[in-house]
Recover the amino acids of this structure.
């Protein structure tokens, strides 16, 4: 396999062209990581903390170049690229404190002298498979907690984000001992080999690949988590601030061309909210700046490749358009932010995640109906609820079958110190980020300490 990474705003601009190393290279990287892991674990909390802090410093020092690389390789608008790099540094700094945290507890025995201890220990080598849409942040929020807990890491990035992964690896490897963090470029062959060799696996990507990763890892009996997308809804009640709701939803539909698992793809207007929301949201989407991701003001840049754009345009075909539905002329894989209505039950936009700047406007007779529509999707990542009534919002929160609920806010946006994940087809296994990540990358052990006879 040849790994090729192109600039989605200018497909003639090729950033990476290399021959994938193959399955044996991936397995070898795991073995080298396993050899390095023991010393890394035994180096102590201060060493691991200092190393992760040094990575944060390096990311901050290289911030401008990293943001420019994300713009060029994955078409991320400059403002979002800068924000992602800042978050990447913050995540490394957050987990730099984790090695000093307690890893267990001491308990009295039920009878007699002695102590009972619980202690969390690293699994060994963490195999990470990451997507292209957050080329620095997602590898970081997987790798940083794994490393903080004493694991070694082998990262297999998406081919479309190879250059970003290689640049991140340069910064990380400068701060860590050799073999503790390794990037293996490639595709399914390298990813499959990594899952077959690692001691713990974390995956973010498509549902079909994620299910295969889960099957392979569970067959081996190793811990695995998989984040596999969403079909996220925004519920807008009649008492909502329609201007604010439209702005938040438009940002969630069109920001980074809708290429986020937390993007809004279904908008559910409740009762009399339909009329004012319909107009406000269509206007907000038409006003979204579309263009070169290197421009300061761009919100919606190109889709990642030609097939992605074809997928998006096919999704809105034959549906009534309220905004968008066009493909600009010129180089780059662009599509206008699009809002459709009257999608029939069973339509693809209501069943599948379409990774692009398109959303379907739906109607609900009341809040109960809106909740049923939201929960009807096989995914359950995040829902946004827009209302001025806190009581209604609180009544709704636990009825939504999604892992995250955001009130009067865009569906997009992640707080890296809190658990991240969904329900149903969106996620498998323990949550990512925050304290949950540290627990995932370690296993709990119980020790019984009894005094020697005669003491």
């Amino acid at each position: 396999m040849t790994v090729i990474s192109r600039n989605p705003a200018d497909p003639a601009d090729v950033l990476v062209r290399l021959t994938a190393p193959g399955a044996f290279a991936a397995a070898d990287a795991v073995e080298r990581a396993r050899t390095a892991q023991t010393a890394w674990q035994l180096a102590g909390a201060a060493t691991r903390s200092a190393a992760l802090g040094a990575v944060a410093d390096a990311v901050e020092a290289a911030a401008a170049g990293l943001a420019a690389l994300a713009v060029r390789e994955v078409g991320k608008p400059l403002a979002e690229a800068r924000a992602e790099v800042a978050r990447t540094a913050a995540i490394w700094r957050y987990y730099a404190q984790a090695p000093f945290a307690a890893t267990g507890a001491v308990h009295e025995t039920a009878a007699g002298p002695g102590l009972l201890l619980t202690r969390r220990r690293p699994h060994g080598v963490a195999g990470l498979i990451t997507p292209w849409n957050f080329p620095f942040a997602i590898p970081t929020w997987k790798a940083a907690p794994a490393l903080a807990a004493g694991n070694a890491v082998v990262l297999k990035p998406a081919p479309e984000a190879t250059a970003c992964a290689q640049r991140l690896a340069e910064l990380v490897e400068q701060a860590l001992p050799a073999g503790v963090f390794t990037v293996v470029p490639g595709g399914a062959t390298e990813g499959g080999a990594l899952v077959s060799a690692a001691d713990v696996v974390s995956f973010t990507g498509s549902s079909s690949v994620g299910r295969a990763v889960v099957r392979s890892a569970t067959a081996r009996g190793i811990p695995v988590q998989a984040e596999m997308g969403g079909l996220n809804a925004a519920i807008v009640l009649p008492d909502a601030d329609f201007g604010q709701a439209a702005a938040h939803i438009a940002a969630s539909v069109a920001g980074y061309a809708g290429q986020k698992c937390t993007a809004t793809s279904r908008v559910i207007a409740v009762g009399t909210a339909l009329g004012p929301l319909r107009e406000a949201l269509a206007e907000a989407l038409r006003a979204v700046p579309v263009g070169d991701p290197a421009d300061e003001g761009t919100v919606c840049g190109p889709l990642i490749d030609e097939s992605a754009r074809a997928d998006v345009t096919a999704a809105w075909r034959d549906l009534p358009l309220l905004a968008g539905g066009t493909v600009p002329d010129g180089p780059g894989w662009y599509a206008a932010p699009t809002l459709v209505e009257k999608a029939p039950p069973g339509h693809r936009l209501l069943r599948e995640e379409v990774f692009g700047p398109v959303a379907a406007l739906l109607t609900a007779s009341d809040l109960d109906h809106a909740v049923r529509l939201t929960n009807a999707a096989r995914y359950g990542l995040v829902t946004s609820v827009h209302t001025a009534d806190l009581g209604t919002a609180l009544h709704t929160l636990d009825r939504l079958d999604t892992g995250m609920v955001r009130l009067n806010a865009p569906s997009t946006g992640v707080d890296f110190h809190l658990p991240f994940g969904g329900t149903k087809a969106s996620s498998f296994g323990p949550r990512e980020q925050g304290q949950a990540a540290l627990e995932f990358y370690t296993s709990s052990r119980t020790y019984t300490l009894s005094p020697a006879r005669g003491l």
About this structure: The chain has a mean pLDDT of 96.
